[in-house]
Amino acid sequence: MALERTLSIVKPDGVARNLIGDVYNRFEKAGLRIVGARMLHLTTAQAESFYAVHSERGFFKDLVSYMCSGPVIAQVLEGEDAVAKHREVMGATDPKKAAPGTIRADLATSIEENVAHGSDSVENAAREIAFFFAETDLCSRTR
Ligand code: UDP
Ligand code: MG
User: Fold this and answer.
1) What would the pLDDT profile of 42-64 be if each residue is shown by its tens digit?
2) Rounded to whole angstroms, how far apart are CA atoms 9 and 72?
3) Are 68 and 44 in contact (CB under 8 A)?
4) Which of 78, 91, 98, 137 could form a disulfide with 133 if both were Cys (CB 3.0 to 4.6 A apart)?
């Protein structure tokens, strides 16, 4: 087990539907600690850059437009095996395939509007955290 940090986003549908608290509650119950958070409305350029890995996919244009449709809240989660644990709490991309009790199974309305983003590896987590936060924006827990 390793102490890790990962990047989480409550996407525009989750913020619009007042699900921030519900999602945060699931992180905290899973033992993930929020060590930084900020709300912002992504520009098209920011969303395109964040999801650049998907730029050749058929869903890319719609994904960028969805991610810019309203404010999001981005947070850094810290904990043992935080990357994998967070993905487990979120569930599969498609809510129809997500395990019962996960964020996406319980709250998402479609494969696109699936409420939450989570980094998929420690390497990508570092890149995605730096996309939203300076090291000085993050606060390690002292108790
Ligand atoms: N997405 C979509 N259609 C698809 C696959 C993905 O609209 O067929 C969207 C969805 O919002 C997803 C995001 O693109 O969360 C990024 O896709 P990825 O495969 O990285 O899924 P994730 O890592 O979010 O589970
Ligand atoms: Mg992904």
Assistant:
1) 999 999 999 999 999 999 999 99
2) 7
3) yes
4) 137
